[in-house]
């Protein structure tokens, strides 16, 4: 996988790179001086640094907040720029960075766990906690991707699954410790607010050592461009070179997370921009990417400080909001190969209609248990009280309908793209629905469910249009669609952080919704979920022929008379509608669309129509069971059903992909 770029004369390259670094730096410097002058007159700057008057609030803010923040922004930007260059060179992947390979997610989760349950570990050991988490998740990503020879898409997709799993685990912990949820959410979004210069002083040696190590590895890293066999013939060990480079990148990115949280996409943007503007050699990228990262993050941090919001937007949120569209732009420049056709394993047992009938019976039994069996103050009990059923039934039927919708959407996506890792969360449809709902909430007051439903559907269709625009140039390549979904999901996450930072009174509602909770479900919600699921079940049998043919590959599909673009458009519409409805009703965080089709295939349902039915039964069962468990497992508290399903689903798929690579 490579990225095409135009040829630029040498003098023009140098000039463009200089402008890329200098222009944001000059703008940031002007904004910085203006901000410092508003805080303290110029004549008092040296006094504030040399002998701070502890009784003067302006001097205290200048010395212990403004100045450290002035230095932390370019230091973090340089660190991330260096990290991105190393990862992209080692993996030969222009999309590699700590966010897309799972390092940031692991480091962030480790800090969250330590903050909630072992705060003493953070006293002098914050960096080591983050480093352990980042190293573990990065190792998991590479173990799950080795079955496909560490191809760029395999690494990115494995990183996505690990990141989603860590995100669901972190959200689950925040749901169980809701009194800290808002603060943890904002910290995870990346904040450069400082309270002293300890972080600046600590970060400088980490960055200096990493720069020296990268310089020392320059020649071995350049050799990797020749390929593993050529490197071995020259007497070097490519695996050792990669491990050393990865070690530097993981350490540096984990250190950044430990000090300021997750700052997304700077490590992607800085190397990509300098490459596009002419820095072709690794030596030049190692010089210009850290400078560009420092300049861009400094400017971004100054802009968020003057943005007209009630509270400050986390800098990490702003960088992700700018970086995710850049990822979409880069995807359009990637050269990909067609996705291989998938063939069914003849040795796998076949599911029958008898098994479908058994599945229906199991689902009905689960539905009865969810309605009538539970845990109360007096312990476990059966109860058929009309009042209690009136409380339970809406959430139970909402969970059932949403589980069926997400399972069907996931099945459609996996068969349409020929990729078994496709799901509404992965393709960005859930993220599009989330963006629509959050945009509505940002510009309106109150909570209007009808308007939110319309916004969710609009967001889903907007995500669909974006995917069509990105995929058109490569004939709707599966890889293009899936990687575009990564950026859409990231944009949705940044919108969430933006809303939380706005100080809106509906933040508690938003956090519960994003966790996948059904305890606010009403009868209209239940009717909407069940009706949409039944309509979808009625329409999808008409698409069975397409779904049987599409996994054979594009050549075979065209030979059998199927018009690919029209077929994919219809299927994506059938994906967007139920995903938008389900996202509105239970939130965006769930692995049901990923788990249900896999489980149906494991049970032997290979043909399209039986797999659709089996997936629907499986998806309904998963979300029903998750809702029931979340309601009873830690009674009287509740665990959101979407979080519980996602927390179980992530490890399931990591283990499955790892087993396949053996």
Automatic annotation (TrEMBL):
Lipid bilayer topology: Multi-pass membrane protein
GO molecular function: transmembrane transporter activity
Keywords: Cell membrane, Membrane, Transmembrane, Transmembrane helix, Transport
Keyword Amino-acid biosynthesis: no
GO biological process: siderophore-iron import into cell
Places the protein is found: Cell membrane
SUPFAM superfamilies cross-referenced by the UniProt entry: ABC transporter involved in vitamin B12 uptake, BtuC
Annotated transmembrane regions: 66-87, 99-119, 125-145, 152-176, 200-218, 239-256, 313-332, 353-373, 393-413, 425-444, 450-469, 481-501, 526-548, 569-596, 608-626, 633-655
GO cellular component, one term: plasma membrane
Family of the protein in this entry: Belongs to the binding-protein-dependent transport system permease family. FecCD subfamily.
Name assigned to this protein: Iron complex transport system permease protein
């Amino acid at each position: 996988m490579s990225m095409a770029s135009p040829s630029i004369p040498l003098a023009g390259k140098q000039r463009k790179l200089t402008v890329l670094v200098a222009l944001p730096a000059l703008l940031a410097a002007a904004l910085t001086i203006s901000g410092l002058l508003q805080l303290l007159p110029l004549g008092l700057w040296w006094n504030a640094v040399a002998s701070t008057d502890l009784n003067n609030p302006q001097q205290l803010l200048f010395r212990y907040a403004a100045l450290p923040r002035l230095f932390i922004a370019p230091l973090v930007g340089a660190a991330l720029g260096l990290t991105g260059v190393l990862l992209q060179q080692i993996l030969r992947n222009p999309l590699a960075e700590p966010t897309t390979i799972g390092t940031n997610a692991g480091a962030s989760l480790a800090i969250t766990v330590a903050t909630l349950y072992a705060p003493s570990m953070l006293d002098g050991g914050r960096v080591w906690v983050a480093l352990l988490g980042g190293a573990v998740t990065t190792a998991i990503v590479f173990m799950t991707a080795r079955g496909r020879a560490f191809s760029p898409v395999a690494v990115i997709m494995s990183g996505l699954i690990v990141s989603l799993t860590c995100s669901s685990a972190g959200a689950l912990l925040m749901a169980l410790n809701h009194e800290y949820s808002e603060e943890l959410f904002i910290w995870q979004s990346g904040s450069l607010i400082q309270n002293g210069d300890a972080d600046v002083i600590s970060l400088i040696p980490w960055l200096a050592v990493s720069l020296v190590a990268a310089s020392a590895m320059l020649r071995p890293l350049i050799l990797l461009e020749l390929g593993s066999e050529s490197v071995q013939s020259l007497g070097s060990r490519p695996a050792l070179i990669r491990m050393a480079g990865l070690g530097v990148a993981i350490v540096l990115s984990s250190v950044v997370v430990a000090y300021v949280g997750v700052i997304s996409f700077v490590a992607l943007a800085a190397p990509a921009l300098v490459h596009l503007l002419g820095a072709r050699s690794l030596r030049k990228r190692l010089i210009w990417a850290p400078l560009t990262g420092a300049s861009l993050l400094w400017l971004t941090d100054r802009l968020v400080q003057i943005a007209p919001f009630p509270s400050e937007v986390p800098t990490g949120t702003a960088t992700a909001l700018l970086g995710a569209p850049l990822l979409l732009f880069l995807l359009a420049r990637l050269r990909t190969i067609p996705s291989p056709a998938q063939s069914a394993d003849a040795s796998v047992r076949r599911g029958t209609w008898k098994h479908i009938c058994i599945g229906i019976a199991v689902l009905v039994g689960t539905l009865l248990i969810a309605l009538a069996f539970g845990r109360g103050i007096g312990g476990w009990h059966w109860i058929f009280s009309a009042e209690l059923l009136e409380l339970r039934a809406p959430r139970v039927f909402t969970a059932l309908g949403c589980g069926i919708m997400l399972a069907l959407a996931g099945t459609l996506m996996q068969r349409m793209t020929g990729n078994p890792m496709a799901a509404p969360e992965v393709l960005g449809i859930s993220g599009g629905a989330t963006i629509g709902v959050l945009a509505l909430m940002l510009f309106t007051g109150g909570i209007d469910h009808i308007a939110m439903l319309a916004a969710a559907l609009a967001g889903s269709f907007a995500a669909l249009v974006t995917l069509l625009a990105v995929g058109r140039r490569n004939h709707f390549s599966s890889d293009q669609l899936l990687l575009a979904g990564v950026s859409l999901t990231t944009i949705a996450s940044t919108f969430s952080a933006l809303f939380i930072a706005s100080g809106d009174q509906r933040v508690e509602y938003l956090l519960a919704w994003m966790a996948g909770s059904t305890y606010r479900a009403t009868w209209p919600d239940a009717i909407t979920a069940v009706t949409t699921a039944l309509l979808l079940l009625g329409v999808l049998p008409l698409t069975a022929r397409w779904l049987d043919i599409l996994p054979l590959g594009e050549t075979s599909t065209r030979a059998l008379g199927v018009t690919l673009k029209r077929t994919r458009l219809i299927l994506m519409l059938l994906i967007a509608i139920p995903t938008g409805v389900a996202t509105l009703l239970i939130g965006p965080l769930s692995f049901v669309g990923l788990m249900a089709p896999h489980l149906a295939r494991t049970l032997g349902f290979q043909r399209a129509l039986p797999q659709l039915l089996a997936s629907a039964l499986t998806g309904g069962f998963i979300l029903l069971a998750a809702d029931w468990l979340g309601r009873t497992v830690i009674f009287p508290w509740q665990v959101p059903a979407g979080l519980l399903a996602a927390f179980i689903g992530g490890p399931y798929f990591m283990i499955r992909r790892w087993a396949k690579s053996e």
